[in-house]
């Protein structure tokens, strides 16, 4: 029995094309894994943001305490960088 070349080619192409298709279950599992990973990343970022907010609030409180206690004028370093101010070296 001789199998025509065209039939053999079509069967081979069909086999490879069907094996490359993803099933509904595989797509659903992949989507669930990706969603879980994104939720985990979102939670980690939110926690980091909250920690930074708390640290910034603490720094602001400390700076305000220095201003009131020592009547200090505290400026941003960028304001100093715009001028020709030279930071002294106390070493």
Shape: rod-shaped
Please give the alpha-carbon distance between the first and last residues. 97 Å
- Tell me the series of helices and strands, N- to C-terminal: HHH
Number of helices: 3
Percent strand equals under 5%
Q: Report the uncertain regions.
A: none
Query: What's the total count of β strands?
Result: 0
Largest sheet: none
Percent in helix: over 70%
Radius of gyration: 33 Å
Structural class: mainly alpha
Mean pLDDT: 78
Characteristic key phrases:
3 helices; rod-shaped; 91 residues; mainly alpha; 75% helix
Can you characterise this structure?
The chain has a domain at about 25-80. It has helices spanning about 5-20, 25-70, 75-80. The chain is mainly α. It is rod-shaped, with a radius of gyration of 33 Å.
Brief synopsis:
This protein is mainly α and 91 residues long. It has a domain at 24-81. It contains three helices and no strands.
List the helices and strands and how they pair.
Elements: H1 5-19, H2 24-70, H3 77-82
């Amino acid at each position: 029995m001789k199998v025509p070349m065209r039939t053999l080619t079509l069967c081979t192409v069909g086999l490879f094309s069907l094996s490359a298709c993803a099933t509904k279950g595989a797509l659903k599992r992949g989507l669930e894994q990706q969603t879980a990973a994104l939720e985990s990343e979102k939670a980690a970022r939110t926690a980091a943001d909250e920690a930074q907010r708390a640290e910034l609030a603490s720094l602001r409180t400390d700076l305000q305490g220095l201003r009131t206690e020592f009547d200090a004028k505290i400026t941003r370093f960028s304001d100093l960088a715009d001028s020709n101010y030279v930071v002294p070296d106390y070493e």
